[in-house]
Amino acid sequence: MDVVILKDFEVKACHGVNPEEKVNPQRFLFTAEIFTDFSNCAKSDDLSQTISYSDVKKTLRSFCENNCFDLIETLAVKAAEILLKKYPLASKVKLTVKKPDAPMSGVFDYAGVSVEREWTTVYLALGSSMGDKGGYLDFAMKRLLADDNFRNVKESNRIVTKPYGGVAKNDFVNSAVKAETLYSPQELLACINEIEKNGDRVRLERWGDRTLDIDIVFYGDEIVEDDNLCVPHIDMQNRDFVLAPLNELCPNKLHPVLKKRVRELYENLTKTN
Fold it and tell me: Is the peptide bond before 232 cis (omega within 30 degrees of 0)?
């Protein structure tokens, strides 16, 4: 991976918890490392095929000067996300914010924070078995596409499937979605739960009929085992309504636990059925 670097760029702005810091600008030093791919710009020698460090400088200056945060942690995280959202060629950002004149006693070079943020490829499973099923999936897609914490959102073809789990009675309309996101796994869970809620989802019984169901199938190659979230989805290998659309989007995706590709999981399931 190639990197565009802007080191110790100075901006004067008002950030801090103390009252005087909100009215008297202080120095902030930004070091940004923006990960990208120089292959195209190296061939074309074209600035539009890379990320201009001059433009990065202007973006950081504008954001820093036109906002006021109590914490430089907030400044750093939001600035990193701004860079990722503004520059489509950026896949990851490392950002350090130094505050050399921080109002505290003692001899020091600077106080500061460093953050890393990147786009993570995720796969979601969508389903609906009540009401306007296609309309509810359309609603979910519109919400994902409208959220700037997602990019490159792509849905598979939709399929009609029989209910799974012995509780739901109606046929489902199912699809899979591939996207890149800045959300952490827990933030992504909160996001899709909110979309389900706004899509008239009512949780009355497990595996019952529902207007809208969204599951996280993969989050990059991460393995998440929290009380409220397991990723990869714990039962995906047994669900043809998940694997069939997923096989359309990412047949070669390797399951980080089962060590089998989506195509293999789908073929194994269809053989047993």
Answer: yes
Q: Are 115 and 245 in contact (CB under 8 A)?
A: no
Q: What is the DSSP letter of 169?
A: -
Q: Are 113 and 97 in contact (CB under 8 A)?
A: yes
Least confident of 61-75, 148-162, 167-181: 167-181
Q: Which two tokens stand for residue 83?
A: 């860079």
Q: Kindly name the residue from 92, 98, 99, 178 that is annotated as catalytic.
A: 99
pLDDT at 202: 62
Q: Is 260 a catalytic residue?
A: no
Confidence of residue 206 (pLDDT cuts 50, 70, 90): low
Helix 53-65 to helix 72-86 angle (10° resolution) is: 140
Strand ranges, E, within the chain: 2-13, 26-36, 92-99, 111-118, 120-128, 150-155, 159-161, 172-181, 213-219, 224-226, 229-231
What pLDDT score does 141 carry?
Answer: 98
Single-letter amino acid, residue 241? F
- Model confidence pLDDT, tens digit, residues 50-80: 999 999 999 999 999 999 999 999 999 999 9
Angle at which helix 185-198 crosses helix 133-146, to 10 degrees, equals 140
Instruction: Name all contacts of 5-11 with Cβ < 8 Å and 24+ positions apart.
Output: 5/31, 5/32, 5/33, 5/34, 5/53, 6/30, 6/31, 6/32, 6/53, 6/56, 6/57, 6/60, 7/31, 8/98, 9/57, 9/60, 9/61, 11/60, 11/61, 11/64, 11/65
* pLDDT for the residue 1: 87
> Could you give the CA distance from residue 257 to residue 158 in angstroms, rounded to a whole number?
27
